[in-house]
Amino acid sequence: MKLCGEKKAPPIHQVTLRKPVMSAASGPIAPPAPAPASGFALATPPQAHPRAAAAAPPDPAAPRAGTVATMPSGDARDPHCPTRQVLDRIGDKWAVLILLHLADGPRRFNALRHTIGGISQKMLSQVLKSLERDGLVARTVYPTTPVAVDYALTGLGEGLIDRLRPVIGWAEANVGAIMAARAAFGAEGVPPPA
After folding, report:
1. Nearest to 156, CA basis, from 95, 68, 90
2. How many Å apart are CA 104 and CA 132, to the nearest integer?
3. Distance CA 127, CA 100 (A)
4. pLDDT at 45
5. Which of 55, 78, 118, 146 could anchor a disulfide with 4, C-beta 3.0 to 4.6 Å?
6. Angle formed at CA 118 by CA 112 and CA 96, multiple of 5 degrees
7. ω before 146 within 30° of 0 (cis)?
8. How far apart are CA 164 and CA 123, in angstroms?
9. Tens of pLDDT along 66-98?
């Protein structure tokens, strides 16, 4: 998958891999070693036991292929980059408030609507669907009568809210200064004379 801002990768030299020769008794046998530069072949070419060359177990801390850590990144400065869609989601006040409330634990739809306050049922439904589509929120349906639905943050959503908390803290700490700047700017949108 090519994202915005990616450079074309340099060509990779092709390497042809041969299938190992199989022995009925012992399994794969390493192919004979090539003759040394002197032209004399060794009497008994060195062969490693097939299991001795087995790969080390994978590092659990290393990212696996196809995971978020191995996915290509984008460039928000590129006008055609999908990163801008992600920034639109992050910059939406309702999305941020929903994520902030879900950071306290799973919530039901009406509980979210009442704790957030000021959001319509339609808007909450739309934003929750968008957050679920983006992989930030998980929706769990319980087969009860009536049907119960919980919303919770995913790992991706938890990672986002961890990065949004400092921004939210900054907004809470500086709201007074911003409101004063707005008042000083004037109702006409013209800054007051200095």
Report:
1. 68
2. 17
3. 13
4. 47
5. 78
6. 60
7. yes
8. 21
9. 445 556 678 888 888 888 888 888 888 999 999
